[in-house]
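Supplementary Methods. Inverse-folding protocol.

Structures were first reduced to a discrete structure-token string of length 328. This string, shown here, constituted the complete conditioning input.
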């Protein structure tokens, strides 16, 4: 990569984070910088003080650079810290225009549960999303059609790609142009291969998936920002194992499932959780095949997880007779 490829940002920003060391773009050059100890004070709910995409203030002593301060973020793409009982937030990227959720329709198989969890977190963070179905060369047509259909009512933008035969790569390039995007998804779905296909100068390391485990090998181990030739930049990330949304009040979850909410807003109870309440419009839409069963399953699984973490939704379970609409 030559310096002329790098956009001149008015403010230094973080392009890579490893443990205590970061890379920062300063005046068109990438430098290594340490994190000042004070950044680890007053972290609040956050596990990490700095993430890729953060605008920062830096200082220099001789050849040593340090990050002194993180500037206010426009948005944060985050999840609940994995494998921990406490409820902390892990920042995955900041100040991004969109999250591109990369899925495979080959091996590893498509996981609606993982895609839905990431979609919900982005909706909560108010970050636009695109759902990519990669490995189309290995996907079965019928299966791909079913997946697309299950998302059309939620308004999710979808594209079908193959990093091997080039299907959809131009469309993806257009979607990424002049924006800062995060590629995110399970290990082995082809995030880094798609990046290399978009720009063959990148030469990011990729590795074949494990056939027996039907999963990736966690080849990418850190998040990194790359400028792309169509303008804009893409952040390649390590494959996710388990994604749990952070901080969503259980009561609010339903508004982040747009396809369920189309029906749910007409439920008898304003705070209907769409589980067993009488006259629930989501349950009847589900029965009439107007909502994808996989989407409903994701909603329930995430709702239960959020309730366990943040307390119940205080839902009303008894039907109170003819005047129950008065609760509205
Ligand atoms: N058949 C097929 N294979 C693909 C496609 N895209 C990627 N692969 C292969 O899938 C394997 C995993 O690709 P990677 O790009 O390393 O996957 P990743 O999502 O970056 O994985 P992590 O870095 O572990 O998160 C490699 O062997 C790629 O060649 C595709 O569209 N079709
Ligand atoms: Mg990778
Ligand atoms: Zn309902």
């Amino acid at each position: 990569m030559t310096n002329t490829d790098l956009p001149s940002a008015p403010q230094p920003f973080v392009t890579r984070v490893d443990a205590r060391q970061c890379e920062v773009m300063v005046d068109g050059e990438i430098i290594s910088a340490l994190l000042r100890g004070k950044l680890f004070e007053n972290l609040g709910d956050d596990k990490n003080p700095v993430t890729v995409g953060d605008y920062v203030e830096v200082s220099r002593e001789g050849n040593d650079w340090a990050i002194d301060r993180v500037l206010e973020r426009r948005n944060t793409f985050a999840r609940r810290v994995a494998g921990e009982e406490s409820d902390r937030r892990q920042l995955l990227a900041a100040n991004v225009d969109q999250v591109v959720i990369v899925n495979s329709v080959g091996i590893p198989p498509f996981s609606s549960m993982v895609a839905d969890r990431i979609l919900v977190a982005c909706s909560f963070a108010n970050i636009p999303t695109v759902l990519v179905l990669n490995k189309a060369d290995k996907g079965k047509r019928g299966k791909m059609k079913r997946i697309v259909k299950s998302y059309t009512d939620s308004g999710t933008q979808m594209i079908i790609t193959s990093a091997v035969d080039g299907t959809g790569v131009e469309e993806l390039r257009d979607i990424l142009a002049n924006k800062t995007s995060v590629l995110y998804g399970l290990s082995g779905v082809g995030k880094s291969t798609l990046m290399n296909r978009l720009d063959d100068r990148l030469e990011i390391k990729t590795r074949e998936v494990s056939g027996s485990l039907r999963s990736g090998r966690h080849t990418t181990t850190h998040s990194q920002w790359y400028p792309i030739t169509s303008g804009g930049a893409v952040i390649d990330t390590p494959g996710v194992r388990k994604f749990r949304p952070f901080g969503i009040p259980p009561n609010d979850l339903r508004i982040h499932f747009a396809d369920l909410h189309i029906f749910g807003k007409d439920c008898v109870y304003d705070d209907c959780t769409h589980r067993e309440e009488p006259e629930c419009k989501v349950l009847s839409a589900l029965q009439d095949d107007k909502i994808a069963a996989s989407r409903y399953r994701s909603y329930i699984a995430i709702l239960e997880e959020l309730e366990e973490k943040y307390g119940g939704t205080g839902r009303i379970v008894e039907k109170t007779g003819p005047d129950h609409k008065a609760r509205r």
